[in-house]
Amino acid sequence: MDLYKLALNNIRRRKLRSALTMLGIIIGAATLMVLLGVTAGTTTAIKDETNSYMYDIAISPESTTGTVLMDADTISKIRNLPQLYDFREVTVLSEEINGTRLFFEGTNNWKDVKIINGTEGVVINQAVADKFGYGIGSKIKVKNQELTVTGISKEVTALYVHINQNQAKELAGNKVGAIYAQTNGDPKTVADEVEKQVDGVSAVTKSDKIEEIQEMTNQALLFMGIIASMALLVGIISVINTMLISVMERTRELGVLKAIGFTNWEIKGSILFESGILGFVGGLVGVILGIIGIIAIANVLNLEEYMAGMMPSWLVLGIIGGATLLIVLAGLYPSMKASKLEVVEALRND
Amino acid sequence: MTKYVLEFEDVWKTYRMGDTEVNALAGLNLALEEGSFTTVMGPSGSGKSTFLHVSGILDTPTKGLFRINGRQTSELSLKEQALLRRNEIGFVFQRFNLLSQLSALENVMLPMINKDAEKAIGLLDKMGLEDKYHKLPSQLSGGEQQRVAISRALINDPSLILADEPTGELDTDNAQSIMQILQDLNRKAGVSIVVVTHNPESASFADEIINMRDGKILQ
User: Across the interface, which of B58, B84, B153 has its CB nearest the CB of A344?
Assistant: First the structure.
């Protein structure tokens, strides 16, 4: 029986207190895991989508309201620019049905639409099916035309109907919301030239967009990290408190250990070890709960394919290692207090 | 040449209590030979507990020279002092001071550097605790707990046993039995023993009885 076994014994002996102390660490670690994991995963998802979806540049109306579309004249000017080739147009229009706004998105690549039932053509998402009670064969009226639902897709995040881009453009009066194109030469220079040569449009490059996303997600990560760290801070304070109480309660025991020849470093080490165990187990349980939370969130957001990216090994090991290290540091003050106990005074303690 | 286990040369231990200073040890001069069995008696406040604490390097003198087995403790680091306590001194306390969550065997093995359960079991057997290895202190009588404490004190083969009122919480039979064990250790194994006690019957087991008063030895 050495001091380290004695430390484990102390944790076991005070199960409820140890569990309550670890609860703070568990909540902190789980929150960190979920917030940072989901943020990291969705960042990857957005970047991937942007990468696969965007060409070198995206040209859209200067207005940012999203309802403004580019007319045939503007489209023609853009298409005639020699610096651009390999165009892809996207039109999104909306229609109010029974007081709810429904979006119709022109689709060029049906592979991106995860159809779970039916076929390409007019594909409503699950949210639309649930909200309006539509199914395959249902009729939807938009801009005086009647569309017949041919399929249902998996996504549930917004009310979308996917139709062929040509059809969307036609419904919008031959207008488009955005034109993606490859560039001859540096995309940044071409984007500037497009904005100069075509009135009322703005052009962003793929790298601008990715940078923008990166910046947004970095800020989100920092914000989430700060919130989650607050939770972990509560855990750290709770450990300091528990270890101080434990040292006070065990004053006589620590006095005996010193009297029978344990060095101050051994006493300090055993208190730090006890803190470290609380931190490690708390961090581990927190990460496990965080992973369960991530799985649930990924399922709700239909981000199953990015689930692995939401729990990278650096995050898992970082949280467990970080929690252990922080809690060991939290045990530093109580351990110093324990090692500085006057043996004679400690032995008199009841 | 005579070897001394404990040497006090004009040792003072002064405590401050508010504005006044109290001399728990007041110029103590004493040398105890290796292999001696000494009891220290005296009324409360005579300084006998402080004497024992200084002897066990649990407390440091305010002034004077103190040596244990020829080594001056004031020249030792805290770590060296701890290791000296661990290897050369065995403590027996009035209230046993066993760790309540550990079994008798675990308590005995606690100070061991190289864990040797056989040796610990051998000591418990010698103390007549053959069937009590795995009992917790709360499951043992006072006499049994003190015998576990003596086993713990002996586990690292110390040259000196310091006992602070070891029979203070025991009935007469158990008190006699504990003093007999200490006497046997002294006679058979040559371990130097210093016992602080109030009890004249316990004191009679020793070869030498020292009386203390006001931090000094009465001549």
Answer: B58
**d(C-alpha A205, C-alpha A23), whole Å:** 47
Measure in Å the smallest separation between the Cα of A2 and chain B Cα atoms: 6
Measured from the Cβ of residue A313, the count of other Cβ atoms closer than 10 Å reads 7
* Digit-coded pLDDT (tens) for A2-28: 778 888 888 888 888 888 888 888 988
Q: Quick one: DSSP state of residue A176?
A: B
Task: Compare CB distances from A262 to B82, B109, B152 and report the shortest one's residue.
Answer: B82
Cβ-proximal residues to A193 (8 Å cutoff; 6+ apart), any chain: A81, A83
Res A285: pLDDT: 96
CB contact under 8 A, A344 and B59: yes
> Can you say how many angstroms the Cα of residue B12 is from the centroid of all Cα atoms in its chain?
20
Q: Which whole-number Å values give the CA distances from A127 to A102, A167, A290, in the listed order?
A: 11, 22, 27
Rounded Cα gap, residues A77 and B97, in angstroms: 94
Taking the Cβ of residue A6 and every Cβ of chain B, the question of whether any pair is shorter than 8 Å is answered with yes
ipTM of the complex: 0.90
Confidence (pLDDT) at A302: 75
CA dihedral A40→A41→A42→A44, nearest 10 degrees, is 90
**What angle do the packed helices A15-53 and A264-300 form, to 10 degrees?**
50
Q: CA distances (Å), A283 to each of A221, A242, A248, A296, A347, in order? A: 19, 17, 26, 20, 36
CB-CB neighbours of A96 under 10 Å: 8
Asked if pLDDT for residue A67 goes beyond 70, the answer is no
Q: What is the pTM of this model?
A: 0.70
